[in-house]
Amino acid sequence: MREHSELRCRTILMNNGRSIPALGFGTLIPDPGDTLRATRTALEVGFRQFDCAERYRNEASVGEALQGVLREGTVRRGDLFIGTKLWNNNHRPERVKPAFEASLRALRLDYLDLYLIHTPFAFRPGDDQDPRDESGKIVYDDGVTLLETWGALERLVDEGKCHAIGLSDVDGARLAEINRSARIRPAVVQVEAHPYLPQWELLEACREAGTVLLAFAALGHSFEPRLLEDSVIKKVAAAVGKTAAQVCIAWGLQRGTALLTTSKNADHIRESFDVSPLPESAMEAIEGITTRYRFNPVVETGIPGFIPREADLKD
């Protein structure tokens, strides 16, 4: 599935015949100004895959950064791979196309390279992205199935403004469910994956289906246990003359996944793109890590652990 030999510029062939840059930049950055600056920096550094979502509430800032480089002519649209995600309150089939078109307008694009169902959990349809009942619990929607939502995404592909579709925050069972019934199989599955959560079984299932596994939280997260402080990771980093973050990114790319890295710090963005291949001994050492930890419980509830609630942002 690999097409390009240089690690940071590696591409992976998807099952629709198109390729995705393996190293991508995630845009989950709460502040719109920070989003604009970070996206612009990532473009200048060399990132060509960008992961967005309507739930991040910052697609317009990403779009502004994209349009800036496109107007300057420093990057062509055909060189970019832009994906975004359908949020849980828009799972009803009649809501999918309007949500997709709203994201296109916000990003100021004519088409999307990838559109994902953000989670397999449907929330109450409406304008509220975080619908809650009187006791503060999420209100789910049992009037729509994942397969019905998937069918609406397939129709977006038919219409030509969406080149590939996929799933996010799913397990192997959900992927198998879609693959059994789908007319268009998922091109990408985006899940949390890193040395503490390698997702080997799901990665193998994706390989068998011709689906690319796109890892988020590839560097762990700013909670305990801290992946970048792991003794094995630090030992490998010292041996190869790279940072712990660069080692984790290289590990993910070399094992065949695409992955996302996110930062609003310009130095960290440059660091994340400056990756080099690891020796086989380093790969084996990292794969020997026995710590297992999931940082984001979104797969259990559909409630994202890394995205602040809108009410929290207003406080």
Write a structural description.
The longest helix has 15 residues, at 93-107. Strand 4 (49-51), helix 2 and strand 5 form a beta-alpha-beta unit. By secondary structure, the chain is of the alpha/beta class. The chain has a single domain (7-299), classed as NADP-dependent oxidoreductase domain (TIM Barrel, Alpha-Beta Barrel), CATH 3.20.20.100. The strands form two sheets. An eight-stranded parallel beta barrel has the order 3-4-5-6-7-8-9-10, surrounded by five helices. It has a two-stranded antiparallel sheet with strand order 1-2. The protein has helices spanning 32-45, 59-72, 93-107, 146-159, 172-181, 200-209, 231-240, 244-254, 266-273, 280-287, 298-301, 310-314, and strands at 11-13, 19-21, 23-26, 49-51, 81-86, 114-117, 165-168, 188-192, 212-216, 258-261. The protein contains twelve helices and ten strands.
Helical content, roughly? 25-40%
Q: Major sheet, described briefly?
A: 8 strands, parallel, barrel
By DSSP, the count of extended strands is 10
- CATH class type: Alpha Beta
- CATH topology title: TIM Barrel
The run of helices and strands is: EEEHEHEHEHEHEHEHHEHHHH
Annotated CATH homologous superfamily? NADP-dependent oxidoreductase domain
Shape: globular
Tell me the count of domains: 1
Low-confidence stretches: 1-5, 311-315
Q: How many whole angstroms does the radius of gyration measure?
A: 19 Å
What strand line-up does the widest sheet have?
Answer: 3-4-5-6-7-8-9-10
The chain-level structural class is: alpha/beta
Please state roughly what percent of the residues sit in beta strands, choosing from under 5%, 5-15%, 15-25%, 25-35%, 35-45% or over 45%: 5-15%
